[in-house]
Write a structure and sequence with these properties.
6 helices, Transcription Regulator spoIIAA
């Protein structure tokens, strides 16, 4: 487990001061996060996020762990935080650049309607870039969607071996032996 939580004493390891952290001992940030490797996906929980710097720190940590552990399915669950609507200020566009290259599925879960609306906006921006992102109010549904293996990018690549549509149309259709031409 990777995370930022000064009170957590459980198993795994934690990082108190990540590179680029905005926290100091004099002014500790209330933001906390944990990133856990679950079977089949990466789980990233964010608590009490308020600032753009905290958002960037969290998204950078999620991207780094996803790449490090080669987990391309990610659950981002946000709790008791402020909604964000300004993309560049919060570092979302650089996260989307990485997601466009690496992510297979990203599920966004929110505990409030305001954050859910902000997630809908972020998902719309991701869809424009071709990233498979969905928002959820129910965490169980998000996990089920992430674990569903029906969507596989390799399947799309396999179908590209078939003849292109133009070439198939040029070949014409085979005539049924019992039918006459019109």
């Amino acid at each position: 487990m990777i995370g930022k939580d000064d009170t957590w004493k459980g198993p795994g390891h934690r990082i108190d001061d990540l590179p680029g952290s905005t926290t100091t001992r004099a002014f500790p940030s209330p933001m906390k996060y944990r990133i856990i490797l679950e079977p089949g996906y990466l789980r990233a929980d964010l608590f009490f996020r308020r600032t753009a710097a905290e958002t960037r720190e969290f998204l950078d940590a999620v991207a780094a762990e996803g790449i490090k552990h080669q987990r391309w399915r990610i659950l981002i669950s946000v709790h008791a935080s402020r909604p964000i609507f300004t993309v560049e200020k919060y570092g979302l566009s650089s996260f989307l650049d990485l997601a466009e290259r690496y992510a297979e599925k990203i599920a966004l879960h929110a505990d409030t309607i305001e954050i859910h609306i902000a997630h809908d906006y972020a998902a719309m921006l991701a869809h424009v870039r071709g990233i498979n992102v969905r928002t959820f109010r129910n965490e169980t549904a998000a996990i089920e969607w992430l674990k569903d293996r029906r969507y596989r990018p390799e399947r799309r690549q396999r179908t590209e071996r078939h003849l292109p549509l133009e070439r198939r149309m040029d070949q014409g259709r085979r005539r049924h032996p019992g039918r006459r031409e019109r």
